[in-house]
Amino acid sequence: MANASLLSVRDLTVKFPRIEPVRNLSFDVSEGETLAIVGESGSGKSLTALALMRLLPKAAQITSGRIDFSGRDLLKLDDRSIRSLRGKEIAMIFQEPMTSLNPVLTIGRQITESLRLHEGLSAKAARLRAIELLDLVRIPAPHKRIDDYPHQLSGGMRQRVMIAIAVACRPRLLIADEPTTALDVTIQAQVLDLLDRLRRELSMALILITHDLGIVTQWADNVVVMYAGRKVEQALPEALFADPLHPYTRGLLNASPRLKDDYHYTDGPLTEIPGSIVSAIGENGCPFAPRCPIVRSGCRTRVPDLLVPAEDRLVACPVIFAEGERHVAARGL
Amino acid sequence: MTAYRRIGRALLRTALQAIPTILVIIVLDFFLLQLAPGDAADVMAGEAGSATEETVAALRSRFGLDLPILHRLFAYLDNLAHFSLGFSPRYNMPVAELIGQRLPGTLLLMLVALAIAVVLGLALGSIMAVFAGKLPDRIISVLSLLFYSIPGFWIGLMLIVLFSVKLGWLPSGGSGTIGSDLTGLHAVLDQLRYMILPATSLALFYVAIYARLTRAAMLEVKSQDYVRTAAAKGLSPFTITTRHILRNALLPVTTMAGMHLGGMLGGAVVVETVYSWPGLGRLAFEAVMGRDFTVLLGILLLSSLVVIAANAVVDLLHAWLDPRIGVR
Ligand SMILES: Nc1ncnc2c1ncn2[C@@H]1O[C@H](COP(=O)(O)OP(=O)(O)OP(=O)(O)O)[C@@H](O)[C@H]1O
Ligand SMILES: [Mg+2]
C-alpha cells in the first residue's frame, strides 16, 4: 500500500447554481490500491467520480481544487487531452448497468470502440481482443456473446460487459460507481470479486463507490466516509469497524445489517440515522449537526477541521474527544 | 438463415393481411366516388359542346355507366380478380397501361423528395440539437416553421421565379429536355435537373417535420446513460453524436417517413400540376375533373398498395435499426 501516489485530489468543490454537492474534498489513491468512498444517497459520491472524469453535467462547475493524476492537473487539461485519458488511463463503471449500454449496438461494437480509438487496433484485432475481454470478465461463450445486443443479457452480465469496456485499454485507475447496487446479492459478490481480481491482474488502482459498508471490509484498502459533500472520516477498514469515530460513521454501522454478526460492534437493534441528508443544506457548521446525537452549540457555527487521532486516520469531529461522549455516540442515541 | 426465413414469413403475413384491407378500401372508394355529381359521359358531352340527350345516353351505355351501381361494383371487382384495372373511357386505353406510364415518374419524384426530406431533416435536426438554444437552433427553427406553414404550391411557384426566371439555372417544368438524344449519365443528369425543383417543393414541408422530430429525439437521447458511457470512453463529440445519439434518434424519423410516403401522393398532385410533371398526381387530378372513376379507382388502389408496402419496409427497417424489436 505504500506505493507512489497515483491520484491526489485537493480541496475539490463542485457547485451547481443553488447547491454545492462536493465541498473541499481531498483524498489520495496510490497505485494499485482500492479506495472506498462511502456515504448515503445524495452525499456527492457520483459527482466526485464524474469530476475525476471531467464528465460533470453542464450546470455543474468546479469552483476550486486540483486533481493531480500522475503528475498532470486534470482540471487544467484541454478537451482533447482529457479525452485521450478517458477510457485509456482512467475508466469508469456506472451505477446503472441496465441503461449504461447503447441498446442499438452489439456489445462487441461497444467494447471495440475504445480499443480502436486508443490502441489503434484493426477491426479484426479489436474483435479478438474483445472476445478475450469477455472471457476475462467470465462471460460464457464469448465468441457467441460478442454479437449480442444489451437486451439479450441479464443485469449482472451487462455489468460485466461494462467492466470489460472499462478495462479494455488497461487503465491505471478504475472508478466503479456503486457497481453492484442494481444487482441482486448473489451477483454482487461475484462482480466485486471480479473487480478485485482484475485490479490485481491489471495492476489498476480502484475507487469503489458504495453506500454499503459491508462491501468495504472485504475489498477496500482505505475508506473515505462522505457526508453532504464533505469527508467526515478516513481510516483503514479494520480501524474503521473496530472503532468508528465520527457519529455519522457510527450511525452508518448501526444501520448496516451484515456487520452485526461479523464485528459484534453493537448488540442493540438495527437503528437508522434519524433525519435526512437534506437537513445539511444551509448549515454553516458541521453538515451532520442537525442529525447528530452529540451535537454541541459550537458545531453549528463553524465547519469542524479534520483531526488526526492516529496514523492513517482522519475525523472531522472534535466533540467525540470530549470525555463521556464516545459512549453516548456509540449507542446511537 | 433463420433471420431471413423470419423476415420472409413476416412479409407473407403482411401481404395476406393486406388483401381484406384493400378490398374494403376499394368498396369504400367506389361508393364515395358515386357521391360526386355527374359522370364521365356528362363531362365528355359538356366538352364536346353540342351533345344531345341521345348521344349522352349512347356514351353511357357504351361505358356501362347506365347499369345499376352494385352491378358496376361487381363488374369492377370481377375485373380486378382477373388482374385488370378496367378501361378508361376518357383516355380510351386500359387503366393499367395509363397508370404504368405515369407511375415511374411519380414514384421517382416521391422517393427523391422523401430522400431529400430525410437527409436534410436529419442534418438540420442534428445541428439544432447540437446547438440547442443557441443561434443556429433559433434560425433553423424559424426556417422550419416557415417551410411547415407555407403551402407547397406557393413554394413551388417561388422556386420557379427564383431559379428558373431570375437565375435561369433550372427548368421550370416538364420531365426532360424535349428532343434531346442524351444517353447514359447525361440523360440521368438531365432528368435530375428537371427533378430538383419539384422534388424540393414537395420535400420542404417534410424537411421541417423531420428536423423538429430529429431535434427532439436527439435531445432526449443525449441525456441517456449510454451517452455518458460513450463519453467516458474518450470518444469525440462528433463520434458520440453520430454513432450513439443520432443512431438512436433515427427510429421516430423512419416511422414518420414511412407514414408520409402515402400522404406524399396528395402533395404530388399539387406539385405535379405546378411543374407540369407527367405523373400520377396530375393523372388523378385530370381523372377527377373528367369524372373518370375507373382511372381514379385504379390510382387509389395503387396508392393503398404503396402505403402497405411502405409500412412493411418501415417494419423491416425498424427491425434492422432497433435490435430490441425483431421481426414479429
Ligand atoms: N444535474 C444536477 N443538478 C442539480 N443537482 C444535482 C445534479 N446531479 C446531482 N445533484 C445533487 O447533488 C447531490 C449529490 O449527488 P450525487 O449523485 O453525487 O449523490 P450520490 O452520493 O452519488 O448518491 P447515490 O448514492 O444516490 O448515487 C444530490 O443532492 C443531488 O441532488
Ligand atoms: Mg451516485
Task: Describe what this molecule looks like in 3D.
The complex is a heterodimer of chains A (333) and B (328). Chain A has two domains: 5-89 and 171-331, Rossmann fold (3-Layer(aba) Sandwich); 98-170, no CATH class. In chain A, helix 3 crosses helix 4 (123-136), helix 3 runs parallel beside helix 6 (155-167) and helix 6 packs parallel to helix 7 (185-201). A seven-stranded mixed β-sheet of chain A has the order 6-7-8-3-9-10-11, sandwiched between helices. In chain A, strands 2-1-4-5 form a four-stranded antiparallel β-sheet, covered by helices on one side. Chain A has 333 residues and is of the alpha/beta class. Chain A has twelve helices and eleven strands. Helix content of chain A is 33%, strand content 20%. Chain A is globular, with a radius of gyration of 21 Å. Chain B is mostly helical and 328 residues long. Chain B folds into two domains: 3-94, no CATH class; 100-152 and 200-321, MetI-like fold (Orthogonal Bundle), CATH 1.10.3720. Chain B has twelve helices and two strands. In chain B, strands 1-2 form a two-stranded antiparallel ribbon. In chain B, strand 1 (87-88) and strand 2 (93-94) form a beta hairpin. The longest helix of chain B is centred in the middle third of the chain and has 39 residues, at 184-222. Chain B is globular. The two termini of chain B are 16 Å apart. The mean pLDDT of chain B is 84. Classes of the chains: A alpha/beta (333), B mainly alpha (328). The A-B interface holds A 53, 55, 83-88, 91-92, 94, 96, 99-106, 110, 113-114, 117-118, 149, 151, 162, 165-166 and B 224-226, 228-236, 243-244, 247-248, 321-324. The complex binds adenosine-5'-triphosphate and magnesium ion (MG). Chain A: Its main location: membrane. Chain A: Keywords: ATP-binding, Cell membrane, Membrane, Nucleotide-binding, Transport. Chain A: Residues 7-253 form the ABC transporter domain. Chain A: It is found in: Cell inner membrane. Chain A: It is a peripheral membrane protein.
